[in-house]
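Reading group handout, session on sequence-to-structure problems. Before we discuss, look at one worked example. The prompt was deliberately terse, the way you'd type it at a terminal:

> structure 3-dehydroquinate dehydratase

The input record follows.
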Amino acid sequence: KAIYVLNGPNLNLLGTREPNIYGRTTLADIGDMTVAEAKAHGFDVVFRQSNHEGELVEWIQEAREAASGVIINAGAYTHTSVAIHDALRALAIPVVEVHLSNTFSREEFRHRSLISPVAKGLIVGFGANSYVLAVDALASLIEEAAE
Ligand code: DQA
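And the output record:
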């Protein structure tokens, strides 16, 4: 089974969007980095991005059957989406929340996450490397559960 890496709104613009905050690495580059890191742990990756809340919900539902774990950067939906919260809550597999920026050092409205209460853990603030660290964290969780 694969690791699902799901990306929310505006993350398709990475590389050109506010590079001072989010860096110059594109989402395609991050996809390559996660695939390489997951491969080292023996996992395949399904890497996707959507600007639509409902599509993210459908992918999370799909992960119920198809994935051994989920890494999610829900973008701005992190702070607003009860639907994504509920979809993640219904998963029996581990969820890791990631953010490129340190959301806690930014505006007040980014301090609340509806993803965090249903995540096993969070990795925030390390730019593109947050994703690589998240793959390592998720792979250890899955390996530990299989022991
Ligand atoms: C983000 C942080 C969110 O607050 C923001 O809306 C994003 C990106 C991050 O990865 O730092 O779109 O999730």
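Points for discussion. First: The longest strand covers residues 67-73. Second: The chain has a mean pLDDT of 96.
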